[in-house]
């Protein structure tokens, strides 16, 4: 047994095994108490918990907990067009998550529809950047030096009002599609 004393506090420490919660920093304890662990566990095991079909069209966006560590609301981001699939699977998803944790963590699921580009940004990078770059490189290699390239207004970010954009405006891509177009614009 060790005894440690400083100006503000005096504690006795026992070497060897001690509760895991006592070894965590204070800030981390707060996050875990607010279900940070449960949320990260759901994210990391999403495909296993819900299956490939649901995992390919949705992902956990957040958890809102009521009092205590139970009866939470899981907010799912769902690909536009797949809402019905996920809607009909809600009870099964809740059952699988609660079974995984061993208690009633989730009581309700709410859906938030998103565009597919947020679920699969690599697809946009592949087609709008990688393959387009190969195409433009071939064009340059064979002497075609003038190309009309159609980008997107999304490279200017989310516009608060419907103002006219100018090519000299600040570029702030607002989504994966716009980011892929922006990358290509900056090469040529």
Text of the CATH class of the largest domain: Alpha Beta
Fold-level CATH name of the largest domain: GMP Synthetase, Chain A, domain 3
Q: What count of domains describes the coordinates?
A: 2
Question: Which homologous superfamily in CATH is the superfamily of the largest domain?
Answer: K homology (KH) domain
Q: Helical content, roughly?
A: 40-55%
- The outline comes out as elongated
User: How far is it from the N-terminal to the C-terminal residue, by CA?
Assistant: 69 Å
Based on helices, strands and strand pairing, what is the structural class? alpha+beta
The major pleated sheet works out as:
3 strands, mixed
Name the beta content range. Answer: 15-25%
Count the DSSP helices. Answer: 8
> Kindly state the mean pLDDT as a whole number?
78
Provide the CATH architecture of the largest domain. 2-Layer Sandwich
Q: Write down how many β-strands occur, each being a DSSP E stretch of 2 or more residues.
A: 5
Radius of gyration: 25 Å
The side-by-side strand order for the widest beta sheet comes to 3-4-5
What low-confidence regions span 5 or more consecutive residues with pLDDT below 50? none
Order of helices and strands: EEHHHHHEEHEHH
Structural description of this entry:
The protein is an alpha+beta fold. The chain folds into two domains: 2-118, 2-Layer Sandwich (GMP Synthetase, Chain A, domain 3), CATH 3.30.300.20; 121-185, no CATH class. Helices cover 43% and strands 17% of the residues. The chain has eight helices and five strands. It has helices spanning 20-23, 26-33, 36-44, 46-50, 52-55, 83-101, 121-141, 176-185; strands at residues 2-5, 10-13, 58-64, 72-79, 106-114. The strands form two sheets. Strands 3-4-5 form a three-stranded mixed beta sheet. It is elongated. The mean pLDDT is 78.
